[in-house]
Amino acid sequence: MQRLSNLPDPPNSDEKWKGVQLVMRKHGQSPHALIETLHAVQHAFGYLDRDSLTYVSDALGVPLSKVYGVATFYQYFTLKKPGTHNCVVCTGTACYIKGVPKLVEALKERYGMALDEVSADGSLTLQSACCIGTCGLAPIASVDGEELGRLSAEELLDKLEEVIHGDA
Amino acid sequence: MTEIQSVQIITLTIDGKPVGASGGETILDVAKQNQVFIPTLCHLEGLIPYGACRLCLVEIKGNNKLVPACITKVAEGMEVITNNERLQRFRRWILELLFTERNHVCSVCVANGFCELQSLAEVLGMDHVRLPYLHPKFVVDATHDRFVSDNNRCILCGRCVRVCSDIEGAHTLDIMGRGIKARIVSDLDDDWGNSPTCTRCSKCVQVCPTGAIKEKGRRSVGEKFKHRDVIAHLAEMREAAREED
């Protein structure tokens, strides 16, 4: 139990690190707690930056390259700071057949970015998902967690304009 | 008091020939002892078996699945078939997939003549490729003062990762991402030359089956002679030292 008090200092004084440390302690700071800990970091900060990956590597005694390998293997983890709003477009088979390429094309034309990128002003993240699980509503996208089925390109662009400019 | 360890003796057949083995050995171990050739790429004497390349797939009578010989333990009465038309077909497909996935152009490769992928293609009679080449463009990391990592020639066998973590204990290298975008990185995908963990031991160069990790200062083509048996020797010495303790 000696090791439990030996957690290194977090990269900054943000209070949210306490929650991350709690998760590491709960698992006895074992290297096996890597995925749980990365989940906690992403939950607290929204993404995994270099400093947090280095900290997790240090605190759990997992090599940097392994932490990086795990963080990039799972689609759930993101290494880029996400935009204020997020739009997940399903690129599964059913959605593909029902016209998702048109949605992607329209998004590219309007925002000048491909899926899995963040807009330059940080207002929007575009993500792809392999299947959301509601193929009956294909093509489907989710904007800030709200699922929009049987979607046309115009509807999607209108919805995005609404949420982005709703803030301003 | 010395403990007498009982060694379990197992009899099985490989390609119809009856052979003896001790419990805990893999099909590949036993095949090697009996001079039966099973093609392998990710396997290397001295490293923990990985089962990634699937070239060592063999048939076992009564089992409708193919099993990788490098990680399958022998069992009493097992009837192993290491070579037939079906296995040859599958092995050629695997090689073709490997060749098309990255840029394996032997004529301009530093490992030409010393490449395990190239020699397996010769041995297994892979004379042409039936799939389109993908021609990926991975960035070559030449920041290290001694080594170069070229993911364009990588087959993701994981030998460098395993030797770096299990034998050297540095774990500088690992595989990032997944599927077709997976590649070897050092630390947090940083320049290898600035790695705080790399010990410059060069074991990764020795184990790389292709020209993906090479030493600097060699001429460009066909100069990458390797000492792959070094790792088996190291592992053996360590085992001996451990037994003495």
Taking the sheet with the most strands of chain A, its summary is:
5 strands, mixed
The CATH class designation of the largest domain in chain A is Alpha Beta
CATH-defined topology of the largest domain in chain B: Alpha-Beta Plaits
**What is the strand content of chain B?**
15-25%
Q: What is the strand content of chain A? A: 5-15%
Estimate the mean pLDDT confidence of chain A.
91
| Parts with pLDDT < 50 across at least 5 consecutive residues of chain B | none
CATH architecture identity of the largest domain in chain B: 2-Layer Sandwich
Strand tally of chain A: 5
What does this structure look like?
The complex is a heterodimer of chains A (168) and B (245). Chain A has 168 residues and is α+β, with helices and mostly antiparallel strands. Chain A is 45% helix and 12% strand. Chain A has seven helices and five strands; from the N terminus they run ααααβααββββα. Chain A has a five-stranded mixed β-sheet with strand order 2-3-1-4-5, covered by helices on one side. In chain A, α2 packs antiparallel against α3. The model of chain A has no long low-confidence stretch (mean pLDDT 91). Chain B folds into two domains: 9-83, Roll (Ubiquitin-like (UB roll)), CATH 3.10.20.740; 88-244, Alpha-Beta Plaits (2-Layer Sandwich), CATH 3.30.70.20. The longest helix of chain B has 17 residues, at 85-101. In chain B, the strands form three sheets. In chain B, strands 2-1-5-3-4 form a five-stranded mixed β-sheet, covered by helices on one side. A three-stranded antiparallel β-sheet of chain B has the order 6-7-10. A two-stranded antiparallel ribbon of chain B has the order 8-9. The model of chain B has no long low-confidence stretch (mean pLDDT 92). Chain B has 245 residues and is of the alpha+beta class. In chain B, a hairpin with a 2-residue loop joins β1 (9-14) and β2. The A-B interface holds A 50, 53-54, 63-69, 72-73 and B 161, 165, 170-178, 185-189, 197.
